[in-house]
Amino acid sequence: MTKPALTLYLAAPRGFCAGVDRAIKIVELAIEKWGAPVFVRHEIVHNKYVVDSLRDKGAVFVEELDDCPPDRPVIFSAHGVPKSVPQAAAAREMVYVDATCPLVSKVHIEAERHHAEGLQMVMIGHAGHPETVGTMGQLPEGEVLLVETPEDVAHLDVRDEKRLAFITQTTLSIDDTAEIVAALRARFPAIIGPHKEDICYATTNRQHAVKAIAGKIDALLVIGAPNSSNSKRLVEVGTANGCAYSQLVQRAQNIDWRAIEGIKTVGITAGASAPEVLVNEVLDAFRERFNVRVELVETAQENVEFKVPRVLREPA
């Protein structure tokens, strides 16, 4: 039986970013240096395949520092943590390694600098997301106000309209964030923004790549976890740019083949915490069912690399 023809548009850049790659290396090096188990507060990155792989090597994932024994190393996830967490670890005399993405740390430093200058912060982010919780937790309670939509801006109760600055979560939709920033500037003309955009290079590049293929495809599959903010934003970008069937899939086994029956073109990308092995798995699944032609659509090249903390580069 002849397989139906299908063109796959493979977005690039896709998959792992430098912050995710660094965080995974930190866990692997910590296990190598101190032996198993090494504890990790929260999923190191939001991807089940990655977490399961590290668990198999000796990582134990917990939600709170209280779940960690004081005599084993603990690693803080790439999303960042409130200041109270490393303070509590130090109080318990624990060995800890901070795997916070340097681009998230940049936002933390920015918030602290504005706070030192007497400014109240407005954070654009998603309530409850670990990165948002971690960033807001850099400053005393009440010093960071959260907005998720342009409508939220109208309800902000600020201390002084002329003494404000804003920061953002690094994994947001570029277009949605621009709307919220416009609403902030319209209501608070004196508000100070970041010197350089807080949304990270990887989030931006992956969204641009989806925009480049959205008009060519009948369906978009984003490989990523349901709790991955940047992956969910890629689905939204696909829908917003004309691809009505845009879906998040964790692995090839999650693809709804009936939903894409009869289509001729599919776009494939992966969130910043999804490894390339899962992309290849999806490509193989399509090749089993279709006569596939793969077209790479590359909108940027990435060569960013972050060093791991010095403690992991020193001998035990």
Descriptive report:
(2E)-4-hydroxy-3-methylbut-2-enyl diphosphate binds at residues 46, 79, 129, 170, 228-230, 273. Keywords: 4Fe-4S, Iron, Iron-sulfur, Isoprene biosynthesis, Metal-binding, Oxidoreductase. Its EC number is 1.17.7.4. Its cofactor is [4Fe-4S] cluster. Helix 8 packs parallel to helix 9 (229-240). It contains ten helices and twelve strands. The protein has helices at residues 18-34, 48-57, 84-91, 102-116, 130-136, 150-153, 174-187, 201-214, 229-240, 276-289; strands at residues 5-12, 38-41, 59-62, 74-76, 96-98, 120-124, 144-147, 164-168, 219-223, 245-249, 265-270, 291-298. Strand 4 (74-76), helix 3 (84-91) and strand 5 form a beta-alpha-beta unit. The protein is 36% helix and 19% strand. The chain is an alpha/beta fold and 316 residues long. The protein starts with a strand and ends in an 18-residue tail after the last strand. The strands form three sheets. The protein has a five-stranded parallel β-sheet with strand order 10-9-11-1-12, sandwiched between helices. The model has no long low-confidence stretch (mean pLDDT 96). The protein has three domains: 5-16 and 201-298, 4-hydroxy-3-methylbut-2-enyl diphosphate reductase, catalytic domain (Cobalt-precorrin-4 Transmethylase, domain 1, 3-Layer(aba) Sandwich); 18-101, Rossmann fold (3-Layer(aba) Sandwich); 103-187, 4-hydroxy-3-methylbut-2-enyl diphosphate reductase, catalytic domain (Cobalt-precorrin-4 Transmethylase, domain 1, 3-Layer(aba) Sandwich), CATH 3.40.1010. The radius of gyration is 21 Å and the shape is flat.
